[in-house]
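Now produce a polypeptide, keeping tokens residue-aligned:
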Amino acid sequence: MAEEKTTKTSLDPDIEKNKTVAALSYVWILFLIPLLGKKRSKFSQFHAKQGLILFLLSFISWFPLIGWLIGLAIIVISIIGILKCLEGSWWKVPYIYDISKNINL
């Protein structure tokens, strides 16, 4: 039996053109590249705003124990975010998305 592999293919030109740049949103301060450089891309802006919140939360990781756990969670979320961007998905990071949708730049 052949297994079917499900993949998300996007026909949206904004996503296809900007998914690699949007993936930078989850690499610490590189969220600034899609945030400032791709203002017309809703896909890039969506992920860059979530990246901004993760960047700000990363400063908590400097504190022992709880901060380290939060830092580890941020690393995991960032890896998932990069993968979701590259597949063209509008992934809403739990709790982070709710904060990021209030950002108007």
